[in-house]
Design a protein that fits this description.
CATH superfamily of the largest domain: Glycogen Phosphorylase B
Largest sheet: 7 strands, parallel
Structural class: alpha/beta
Radius of gyration: 22 Å
Number of strands: 15
Length: 418
């Protein structure tokens, strides 16, 4: 089978979507399939895997990690038909996601889309009226998914969200990203502890983009509380983002600045060793769609203490392979302290985490992905796209001039008072 992945972000960018693209590519190739990746330009990066084709893009000064891709390429227009793709698989609904839909229609092949992200949770990056922005995102996604033959979601909680918000109950499959377990089994954790100078400290580790929606302040506040009675604790945060400075200042203000380590971006191939070198994985994000980094922590034999939220709760069974808490620093601190104060409990959670990680074996997930492609091909031949009920809410929003005044930041009442 020839598979074309379209993604707005790929290496050297580090993100959950990039990990998903890479892991599924590796699994599909191991099964004998060909995978072609279409992504953003990366002038100073040399691809280490074959069949990666780049669209032009612009580096944005505000979000340097995520270039703005320009979804127009005569080279790709000429190349893609010659690759004879059996399916086109989009990992974003915008920019290259729209290009993917157009290509699938022109080539008459099935179109599959992975709903990686709770897109409306990122509306705060648009400095406009939030209610209207979220409504536009909602209906834009509805239109996009109607052009697809199958939707993949990384967790059952996201599947339920699509059912609740979009009325989708057909042509949707839950398929978490797989994990290549081999690097975690072979990881040299001792060398990381030595290089990082962790010594005999109890290391709490977390990983992700340093952004507001990841809820890092709750995690830092929780760990600071535990550090008041546990002198040998160290919190290590792997990742980079616009909130780094604010989080460093928070740690300093809480009196734990010297015990919270910001590593920046760690090369993907070094992540398994860093995770395995820690003692406990802690996580507070409430916007995850599948808990991928939590799955990777389990593959590194780490027990988990996390805020109970979508994505994470799809992976962790509280009391078995981790502990899930309410979304506040006190509850999270109490759970962390409970685990580190009870070695038997930590050992029990660690053993269960190892067993749970086996469920996400990369090859097993790639086999399931192939089955999705085969079903999408059947639906495409039968002329069945994803059935999403039509709604007039977006039309109403367009007609309602006041809504669009608010989108533009214009407060009519305030102007009248002035």
């Amino acid at each position: 089978m020839h598979v074309a992945f379209f993604t707005n972000t790929y290496r050297p960018v580090v993100s959950g979507v990039v990990r998903s693209v890479d892991t599924f590519r590796e699994g599909l190739v191991a099964l004998g399939h060909n995978v072609f990746i279409f992504a953003q330009r990366a002038d100073k990066y040399e691809d280490t895997v074959p069949f990666v084709f780049r669209y032009p893009s612009l580096d944005l000064p505000v979000t340097h990690q995520f270039p703005l891709i320009i979804p127009v390429s005569r080279f790709v227009d000429r190349l893609l038909p010659s690759l004879k793709p059996d399916v086109i698989h989009s990992h974003h609904p915008f920019l290259l996601g729209q290009a993917a839909v157009d290509k699938a229609k022109k080539l008459n092949v099935p179109m599959v889309f992975t709903f990686h992200t709770r897109y409306r949770e990122y509306s705060h990056y648009v400095s406009l009226d939030q209610d209207t922005v979220k409504a536009v995102i909602h209906h834009w996604l509805s239109d996009y998914m109607r052009d697809c033959h199958h939707i993949i979601v990384p967790s059952n909680s996201i599947k339920q969200m699509l059912a609740d918000e979009y009325g989708m109950d057909e042509q949707v499959t839950t398929l978490p990203t797989g994990i290549n377990l081999a690097p975690y089994r072979a990881a040299d954790s001792q060398s990381v502890r030595e290089e990082r100078g962790w010594g005999n400290d109890m290391v709490l580790i977390s990983i992700g983009r340093l952004a507001k929606e990841k809820n890092w302040d709750t995690l830092i506040k929780a760990v600071a509380k535990v550090m008041q009675t546990h002198n040998d604790l160290r919190l290590v945060l792997i990742g980079e983002g616009e909130e780094r400075k604010a989080l460093q200042e928070l740690a300093h203000d809480l009196g734990v600045g010297d015990k919270v380590e910001f590593t920046g971006i760690v090369p993907y191939e070094e992540v398994p060793a860093h995770l395995k070198a820690a003692n406990l994985f802690c996580f507070a994000s409430v916007t995850e769609t599948q808990g991928l980094v939590t799955m990777e922590a389990m593959a590194a034999d780490l027990p988990v203490v996390a805020v109970e939220a979508t994505g994470t709760s799809d992976v962790v069974e509280s009391g078995r392979d981790g502990l899930l808490t309410e979304n506040n620093a006190n509850a999270l601190a109490q759970a962390i302290a409970r685990v580190i104060d009870h070695p038997d409990l930590m050992a029990q959670l660690r053993e269960a985490a190892i067993q749970r990680a086996a469920d996400f074996d990369m090859i097993r997930q790639a086999e399931r992905l192939v089955a999705v492609y085969e079903q999408a091909a059947e639906d495409q031949k039968a002329g069945r796209t994803v059935p999403i009920p039509k709604s007039t809410k977006l039309i109403d929003a367009i007609v309602d001039g006041d809504s669009w005044l608010k989108v533009l930041g214009f407060d009519k009442d305030k102007w009248a008072r002035a």
